[in-house]
TrEMBL record:
Organism superkingdom: Eukaryota
Keyword terms of this UniProt record: Heme, Iron, Membrane, Metal-binding, Oxygen transport, Transmembrane, Transmembrane helix, Transport
Keyword Transmembrane annotated: yes
Entry's Gene Ontology molecular function annotations: heme binding; iron ion binding; oxygen binding; oxygen carrier activity; superoxide dismutase activity
PANTHER family: CYTOGLOBIN (PTHR46783), GLOBIN FAMILY PROFILE DOMAIN-CONTAINING PROTEIN (PTHR46783:SF3)
Catalytic activity: H2O2 + AH2 = A + 2 H2O; 2 superoxide + 2 H(+) = H2O2 + O2; Fe(II)-heme b-[protein] + nitric oxide + O2 = Fe(III)-heme b-[protein] + nitrate; Fe(III)-heme b-[protein] + nitric oxide + H2O = Fe(II)-heme b-[protein] + nitrite + 2 H(+)
Parts of the chain that traverse the membrane: 112-133
InterPro entries in the cross-refs: Globin (IPR000971), Globin-like_sf (IPR009050), Globin_lamprey/hagfish (IPR013314)
Enzyme Commission code(s) on record: 1.15.1.1
Protein family (similarity comment): Belongs to the globin family.
Stretches assigned to the Globin domain: 4-161
Native source species: Sylvietta virens
Gene: Cygb1
Protein name as annotated: superoxide dismutase
C-alpha cells in the first residue's frame, strides 16, 4: 500500500511536526501524562508506571519521560520518510509486529481486548498529539498533521490483521 500524501502535504506535515518535536521529551511526556489522566485504564499496559498517582509524579518520572521521548522519536522517524512508502513501512512494520507479538504472550482469552486496546492506545496518542498541536500552534498545524496520524493508524491496523489478530 502506498502513501496517500502529496508532496505539499508532506512538507506542511513536516513543518507542523518540527515545531512540536523541538521539545520532544517535554511534549512526549505531556502526551503520555494526558493519556494516563484522561484514560486511566491505559496505565495497566505500562506496568512500570504503576504506583504513580499524581500528575506531578508522572511528569517528573524518568521512565515516563523516557517513553514519551521514545514515542516521539518513532513518530519522527516516520515523518522523515513520508515521501518514501517503503522506508515508512520499514519503520512502522517492525514497530507494529513487536507490539503484536509482545501482546500475544498474554492469555488467549485476552487476545481480543488487548489488540483493540493497543490500537486504541495508538489512536489516543495520535489524538492527543493533534490536540497539543492545535493548542500550541493552531488549527492549521493540526489539520496538516492529521493525514500523518491517519497513515500511521491505518498501517498499524493492517499489520495487526496480517499478524492474525
Amino acid at each position: 500500500s502506498t502513501m496517500s500524501l502529496s508532496e505539499a502535504e508532506v512538507q506542511s506535515a513536516r513543518g507542523a511536526w518540527e515545531k512540536i518535536y523541538v521539545d520532544a521529551e517535554d511534549n512526549g511526556t505531556a502526551v503520555l501524562v494526558r493519556m494516563f489522566t484522561e484514560h486511566p485504564d491505559t496505565r495497566s499496559y505500562f506496568t512500570h508506571f504503576k504506583g504513580m498517582d499524581s500528575v506531578e509524579e508522572m511528569k517528573q518520572s524518568d521512565q515516563v519521560r523516557g517513553h514519551g521521548k521514545k514515542v516521539f522519536s518513532a513518530i519522527n522517524d516516520m515523518v522523515q520518510h513520508l515521501d518514501n512508502s517503503e522506508a515508512f513501512l520499514g519503520i512502522v512494520t517492525p514497530l507494529g509486529k513487536k507490539h503484536a507479538t509482545q501482546l500475544k504472550i498474554d492469555p488467549k482469552n485476552f487476545r481480543f481486548t488487548l489488540v483493540v486496546s493497543f490500537l486504541f492506545l495508538v489512536y489516543i496518542i495520535c489524538d492527543i498529539i493533534l490536540q497539543l498541536m492545535e493548542e500550541k500552534f493552531g488549527g492549521d498545524s493540526k489539520a496538516s498533521f492529521e493525514k500523518v496520524t491517519n497513515e500511521i493508524c491505518t498501517h498499524l491496523n493492517n499489520i495487526y490483521k496480517e499478524e492474525g489478530w
